[in-house]
Amino acid sequence: MADAPLPAPDGKPDFGIGTLIAGDGVRGIGALFVFTTHVCLLADPVPNNNLLSYGWAAPVLGHIDLALSAFFVLSGYLIARPFARAYVAGTRRPRLRNYVRNRVLRVVPVFYVLTVLVLLRFGLDGSLETGAAAPDEQSTWWQILGQFLFIQGQTAGNASVPIGPAWSIGAEVGFYVIIPLAAVGAYLAAARLRGAYARVVLALAVIAVVTFVSIALRAAVDRYLFAWLTSPPAILYGFMPGVALGIAEPLFARHLRNRAQLATAIAWAAFAIGLLCAIVYATSDYDPRQTPIHHALGVRALLAALASGLLFAGLVVLQLGTGRAPRLFANKAMLWLGARSYSFYLVHIWVLLELNHILGDGQSIETRLAVLGLIGFPLTVLSGSLSYRWVERPFLERKQRTTQHAPPEAVTPALEPAR
Predict the structure, then answer these.
(1) Is 141 a domain residue?
(2) pLDDT of the residue at 56
(3) Dist CA 211 CA 305 (whole Å)
């Protein structure tokens, strides 16, 4: 193995792909899965029934939360990649000021706007019911502050419910903080190592340790406490396969670029093994009350990370070899939805709760599914699109472009996590 990223045919180092073609497509499909899960939860006329009303379909519905695992792995890959490439090749490091600026512009504005609107609409108790809520049902000032500090999963409070499963945004923000701090240690270690191969081996070993420690901590500290299970130490394992992919890519990129037959074989093998991991994950626990990804423990947590990690490894390899992505992800509909998936993700619970309030009690589960799904989806798409157009995009256009060190023909603006 060479001691530096191997040169591409034009003589320049080959660090891998630029834009991940399928990135937004995966987000689009993930958004559909998350939406479906919450439609089914709210359509159940039995309160807090955790999908049990769906009988044989409950385990299926309870396991499509793997979409969140895919979101985490994609963030791990895209966010860590500039730091990983600088570490592996010893090239110029990303500017911390630009990194912080881009992360803030990506996540904060639309989240703050929608959070304020939700608080105004739903109040401190997170409910549309008329009448004064009991004091213990109202979020406290520090729980409201926790929403704006992205620690909703730890502070809890009813007011956080309508903004969507915001705990995952908090997990993302925690990861954003960890990456540049970890990069400092990585750069110091790289100065003592000769060659890219040694740096990659060390980084992958550290990533493996972090993954297993994070999974072990989930059950060791408190296996049932939501605030702990969604905290950065306990959820970090979900991002690690993406970080590992970003670290390893500069070493295998040249060997696979434009080698369509080899890359296709490797990619589809990764897809197959990843699918097997997903199936084992889904069938290893049939109790839907314990299936959400933030409750996954032990082997199930590892399987979720592997399933998503192998999916993106296959997508990167396939793009290196063929310049293409599977149509399942690289189609106009999913790419369009994926680009707006962050706003879609944040607003969909609000839309569904509004419809659920209008429905009231008494309708059958079939009627509720039809109304929430057939009316809720287009309303969520419309709301998410308006949010993207008037809130997200103006701030995204102010971001600083990050150099990705890809060959000239592959350089395009890097995709960003966008849920």
Answers:
(1) yes
(2) 82
(3) 9
Cα 259 from Cα 373, distance rounded (Å): 43
Which helix (H) or strand (E) segment holds residue 142: the answer is: helix 141-148
pLDDT given at position 419: 37
**Looking at residue 288, what is its pLDDT?**
61
- Cα distances from 358 to residues 44, 125, 169, 377, in angstroms, run 15, 18, 28, 16
Do the Cβ atoms of 404 and 89 come closer than 8 Å?
Answer: no
273 near 310, Cβ under 8 Å?
Answer: yes
* Residue 211: Cβ-neighbour burial (10 angstroms; 0-12, 13-18, 19+): buried
Mean pLDDT split into 10-residue runs, the chain, 419 residues: 46 81 96 94 83 83 86 97 92 92 96 96 90 80 94 91 88 96 94 90 97 94 87 95 97 94 98 95 71 80 95 98 96 97 96 94 91 97 97 90 44 34
Domain that holds residue 56: 23-256+326-410
Q: Yes or no: say if 221 and 292 are a contact pair by the CB < 8 Å rule.
A: no
For 156: left if phi > 0, alpha if psi spans -120 to 50, otherwise beta; the answer is left
Is residue 181 in some structural domain? yes
Helix residue ranges, H only, 360-412: 365-374, 376-387, 393-396
Nearest to 247 by CA among 215, 209, 279, 199: 199
Count of structural domains within the chain: 1
Asked whether residue 417 is domain-assigned, the answer is no
| E strand residue ranges, 80-185 | none
Phi, psi of 93 (to 5 degrees): -85, 150
Q: Does residue 377 form part of some domain?
A: yes
How are the residues of the chain apportioned to helix, strand and coil, as percentages rounded to the nearest 5?
70, 0, 30
Q: Report the C-alpha gap between 236 and 242 in whole angstroms.
A: 11
CA–CA separation, 138 and 28 (whole Å): 34
Residue 91 has a pLDDT of 84
Residue 228's pLDDT is 92
> Under a CB-based contact definition with an 8 Å cutoff, are residues 193 and 202 in contact?
yes
Residue 371 · residue 327 · CB < 8 Å: no
